[in-house]
Design goal:
- By secondary structure, the protein is α/β, with parallel strands linked by helices.
- Helices cover 44% and strands 14% of the residues.
- Strands 3-4-2-1-5-6 form a six-stranded parallel β-sheet, sandwiched between helices.
- The chain binds farnesyl diphosphate.
Length: 248
């Protein structure tokens, strides 16, 4: 599979892959387990997919780990998810450094419990010099929140006469998004069978290729990931141009 990926020189490996990791609860339910078991198994998949992404040369991997809407889940599940995420980050930080992976986070991080936030920032600091894959966790994130925040910042700059309304364009807007340190995703993968983008990177996904799979996140393997990359490589990306313009 890897060979196929590398041989296709005309269609490069996507620089940025974003993933909506869905289906943990249903995976657990289908086995008569508690939903929490699905999240525990989901963390293992995060490890596998991060390793695989680094191995095949993806530069940015953004994972939707906790949405703004997830705060409305039962409080025990919210607490468990927070604990799991922070525990995994703490445990994996030495390995992230060894593998030259830089950790970043996007979202309303001020809403995270203090301990979780501090430990997240600690891992971000510890990996900040790494130059390989950037692993970006979307935590307490929603795209509408991010876009609204950007509007608020631009409005404040305009009010203070530091920016005129005419200076607001694609690039000044993007500069005020949480994702301003990385290029837009080339490929969005959603596991778990639903075919929607659910308030995730709405601005940034404008030209992304979308890949939906029924596989639940805990069952999603390195081979499934490579299959998605292969499918991406077979697509023609036109960015609003004609096919002829692209081939020229
Ligand atoms: C969606 O499944 C998944 C989540 C809300 C959480 C995903 C988080 C993890 C896999 C842990 C991430 C850990 C790190 C270290 C980033 P769901 O509960 O919505 O499943 P369902 O749709 O089947 O109910």
């Amino acid at each position: 599979m890897e060979k196929v990926i590398k041989e296709k020189s005309t269609n490069p490996i996507p620089v940025h892959v974003a993933i909506i990791m869905d289906g943990n609860g249903r995976w657990a339910k289908s086995r008569g387990l508690d939903r929490s078991e699905g999240h525990v198994k989901g963390v293992e998949t995060v490890r596998t997919i991060t390793e695989t992404a680094a191995e095949i040369g993806v530069k940015y991997l953004t994972l939707y780990a906790f949405s703004t809407e997830n705060w409305n889940r039962p409080s025990e599940e919210v607490m468990l998810l927070m604990k799991l995420i922070v525990k995994a980050i703490k445990k994996e930080t030495p390995d992230l450094i060894r593998n030259n992976v830089r950790l970043k986070a996007i979202g309303d991080l001020d809403r995270l419990p203090v301990e979780s936030r501090e430990s997240l920032h600690e891992s971000i600091r510890a990996t900040s010099e790494c130059t390989g894959l950037t692993l970006c966790l979307a935590l307490s994130y929603s795209s509408r929140w991010e876009i609204t925040e950007a509007c608020r910042k631009l409005a404040a700059l305009s009010k203070d006469r530091k920016l005129t309304p005419q200076e607001i364009n694609d690039s000044t807007f993007e500069a005020h998004l949480n994702t301003n340190f990385m290029p837009d995703p080339d490929l969005l993968i959603r596991t778990g069978g639903d075919r929607r983008v659910s308030n995730f990177l709405l601005w940034q996904l404008a030209y992304a290729e979308l890949y939906f799979t029924p596989i639940f996140w805990p069952d999603f393997t390195a081979d499934h990931f490579k299959e998605a990359i292969k499918e991406f490589q077979s697509r023609e990306r036109r960015f609003g141009l004609t096919s002829e313009q692209i081939t020229q």
